[in-house]
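Hi V.,

Quick status before I head out on leave. The structure for the redesign project is tokenized and pasted below; the design run finished overnight.
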């Protein structure tokens, strides 16, 4: 690769670059349009307020909700906490049980653990080798005191897509609230809160080419009207569920990122799927013992996700060798503890060797065919080098 070429970014599940048009849209709100959207007695406040309204409408349009049902937060972590703890804090004495999965993001699992410490019961549904849950397990887990089901839309490590619409139907039949962590899904695959029977949904701008530190919680307002105990109390912003002056530049950037996603969601997903499939084929051809982790590529899987093991090599060794050319992740970037096996791969029952030899690839808008060709060359070279270094056994 030429010396002026940038490192190829293949970690779009961890975060995505801010698109130039998103940055452009944000700039005026970081400079002359600095008004507080709650101070609408003058033009500054009004233009900020209008910009927020517009972004909220775009976002509502993307997820099939009404604008008033979109609550701005700092991101999916906050949204997950607000949805889960906010609902639990308003539960009655005969609502004591929650169902979730073993493969949720820590932003769901940690609030669940905190609720267990407070006396709530939580069922963590097991998963199969592809990180998929069984709807039968879900139905069997439902009890008279179950008040919440929380299942992610798509997994951030191995890309598994969950049967959200079916789960929504089951939840509705039993009168149970349904929360979805859709951080990896919104802006990448179609998500519709009405069609899928979702009552609460978390998502982040930075997973879909918007800025970091801004996200949303969808909160259903009708059929049923969901009430949450706020975590932040103050001026009563965001219908009292999330007080604090809105981060207007970020809200505007979020709205712009959503507009971009809405314009070509299916085409871009198809483009990334083709790149991903070809990349997989070539990598599988380059290493005999390679294994695909997660669902089959033509199965319920995010079109831009690839997760592969290269036993008996260690993924850290591969990553080190390609680090000047590629930004690629082992397991999950959200797991800061590098040497610990991810809880997702653990729940899938993967062997230690398979887990420690795994690379996660997240293809994105910035990647072209040429990029992935270069990425393949870099990984192939690393594999050959590590192969030569290995002691001969037998
Ligand atoms: C990234 C991510 C989160 C956390 O999002 P933040 O924007 O970091 O708060 C939560 N859940 C999933 C599935 C994610 O991928």
């Amino acid at each position: 690769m030429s010396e002026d070429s940038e490192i190829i970014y293949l970690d779009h599940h961890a975060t995505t670059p801010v698109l130039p048009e998103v940055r452009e849209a944000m700039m005026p709100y970081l400079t002359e349009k600095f008004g507080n959207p709650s101070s609408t007695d003058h033009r500054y406040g009004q233009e900020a307020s209008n910009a927020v309204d517009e972004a909220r409408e775009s976002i509502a349009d993307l997820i099939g909700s009404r604008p008033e049902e979109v609550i701005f937060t700092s991101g999916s972590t906050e949204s997950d906490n607000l949805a889960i703890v906010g609902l639990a804090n308003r539960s009655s004495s005969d609502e004591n049980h929650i169902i979730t999965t073993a493969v949720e993001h820590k932003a769901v699992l940690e609030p669940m653990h905190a609720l267990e410490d407070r006396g709530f019961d939580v069922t963590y549904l097991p998963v199969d080798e592809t990180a998929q849950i069984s709807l039968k397990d879900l139905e069997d887990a439902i009890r008279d005191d179950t008040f919440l089901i929380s299942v992610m839309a798509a997994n951030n490590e191995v890309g598994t897509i969950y049967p959200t619409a079916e789960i929504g139907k089951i939840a509705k039949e039993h009168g149970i609230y349904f929360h979805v962590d859709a951080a990896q899904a919104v802006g990448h695959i179609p998500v519709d809160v009405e069609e899928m029977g979702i009552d609460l949904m978390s998502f982040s701008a930075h997973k879909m080419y918007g800025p970091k530190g801004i996200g949303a919680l969808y909160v259903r307002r009708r059929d049923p009207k969901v009430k949450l105990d706020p975590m932040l109390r103050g001026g009563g912003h965001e219908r009292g569920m999330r007080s604090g002056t809105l981060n207007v530049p970020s809200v505007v950037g979020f709205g712009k990122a959503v507009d971009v996603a809405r314009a070509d969601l299916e085409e871009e997903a198809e483009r990334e799927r083709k790149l991903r499939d070809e990349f997989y084929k070539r990598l599988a051809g380059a290493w005999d013992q390679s294994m695909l982790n997660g669902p089959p590529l033509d199965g319920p899987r995010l079109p831009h996700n690839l997760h592969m093991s290269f036993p008996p090599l260690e993924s850290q060794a591969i990553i080190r060798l390609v680090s000047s050319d590629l930004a690629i992740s082992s397991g999950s970037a959200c797991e800061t503890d590098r040497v610990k096996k991810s809880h997702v791969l653990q729940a899938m029952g993967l062997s230690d060797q398979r887990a420690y030899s795994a690379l996660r690839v997240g293809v994105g808008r910035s990647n072209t065919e040429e990029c992935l060709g270069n990425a393949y060359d870099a990984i192939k070279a690393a594999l050959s080098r590590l192969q030569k270094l290995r002691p001969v056994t037998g």
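Above is the designed sequence. The mean pLDDT is 95.

G. will cover questions while I'm gone.

Best,
W.
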